[in-house]
Amino acid sequence: MRRGRYHFDAKKVQRYLQEGRGRGEFNKYLPWLKIQDVPSLGRSHRVWGLKTQRAHHFLSDGESKCFLMFESDSKVIDIREQFPLDTFQTFQAARRLGFRHPYNPDGSLYVMTIDFLVTYRDKYGTYTTPYTFKYSYDELSPREKELIEIAREFWRASGKELVVLSEKFFNQHLISNYDNVRAFFDISKLRFYTPELLQAVMTQFESVVQSTAFWRLTLTDVCKRLAHANSIEPSVVMSIVKHLVSRGLVQTDLSQPLPFEQFEICSFKTVLRAV
User: Which of 108, 214, 234, 250 has the largest CB neighbor count within 10 A?
Assistant: First the structure.
């Protein structure tokens, strides 16, 4: 439902449609709004998506944090941000509610958007859920709440329920720890990397996790031991462990109220043999 201090008209809308904005999935999706399109709306972020393998455009810190929460969820397979809603359908939704639909300065219908359309996969198949993020719903103006209700009515007509997220959605420990490990999703370009070293540390770390003798040690302690065994720096072992976690080859609860490096080894589970 974003409508900020930037100019839209029918000509720009047509250009965006011709560019394919708002269409596609995964790495083929193009968001309706990109950070360069929306000036002066606060802190913006351009983040590479590990699951989508494309750049994501977020117009606030809150949207960026929501993205990290979604991407860290193993059930999430696609995240589409700045998702546009069909103007004919939003116009009909506004009429049903008795609300005024937003317009561009030239009198054309304004294209409403939601912050996220997220695709999940579970044992029953795939499904999508629409989301919008607001820092404080209670502090919104009556008009801003009307726009949310128009979008909600739009999705109800499609058989979905719009979810309004706030800062209560955030798990700061999860966000911090996940953001820490996701940076090591690809370590192939790092100076220390060799396939042989990766395999050696993977095998050794799996043995440590499976041995109860090490369970009360922190990850930092174990990385120091493995570093000594391989004549490398502890930071190299830590980077490899973060890589394994980001790839799902090693699992742990990233929402623990500790920095990742202080996790105890008993909290880790290796799934290397299942891959």
Answer: 250
Residue 226 belongs to domain spanning: 173-274
pLDDT level of residue 2 (50, 70, 90 thresholds): very low
* Helix H or strand E segment including 75: none
Calpha distance 240→85 (Å, rounded):
42
Q: Does residue 230 share a domain with residue 165?
A: no
- What whole-number distance in Å separates Cα of residue 183 and Cα of residue 269? 20
For 6-10, the CB contacts below 8 A with 24+ separation are: 6/37, 6/38, 6/39, 7/105, 8/104, 8/105, 8/110, 8/111, 9/104, 9/105, 9/106, 9/108, 10/104, 10/106, 10/108
State the DSSP string of 35-56. GGGSTTSS--EEEE-TTT-SEE
Task: Name residue 56's beta-bridge partners.
Answer: 47
Q: Which two tokens stand for residue 227?
A: 């570093």
Specify whether 37 is located in the same domain as 136: yes
Q: How many domains does the chain have?
A: 2
Q: Per the domain annotation, does 1 fall within a domain?
A: no
Task: Return the sign of the alpha-carbon dihedral for residues 190, 192, 196, 199.
Answer: negative
Distance CA 99, CA 202 (A): 59
Q: What's the whole-model pTM score? A: 0.92
Query: Tens of pLDDT along 32-87?
Result: 999 988 865 568 899 999 999 999 999 999 999 999 999 999 999 999 999 999 99
